[in-house]
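User: What would this chain look like folded?
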Amino acid sequence: MTKIHTLLGRRGVVVSYRTLHRYAITELGFGKRRATVAVLDGEPGSELQVDFGRLGLIPDPASGARRVVRGLVFTAVYSRHMFVYPTHRQSLDDVIAGFEAAWSFFGGVFAVVDPDYVARHIIGVLCPPALCA
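Assistant: Here's the prediction, encoded as structure tokens.
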């Protein structure tokens, strides 16, 4: 609201902050809580979400230079338990190694894996269109 009040002032619209706030509440519904929508999380152990995230700069043991480290983040949908597999690359070998480490961590394989923002060529190898269509 403060930013809107300032921008209106720059355009020559002079109005008190309280009047602007009152207008936003009555006409635009500003500040009202929105209804939440219940989401069905499914059964325990049925679905896993996978995503890459940037962890930061860490020295690479091979070259000694500081490199960006990404984490392959596995999140169980029902319990929200997470496993992070750090890697310097986003190659197919690293993704497979991350999945194997996650299966070991979780003590089994999930029935459904939802890959968010995993490279398209890697998804195609892990789950060919003929099998995943």
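The mean pLDDT is 82. If you want, I can go into more detail on any region.
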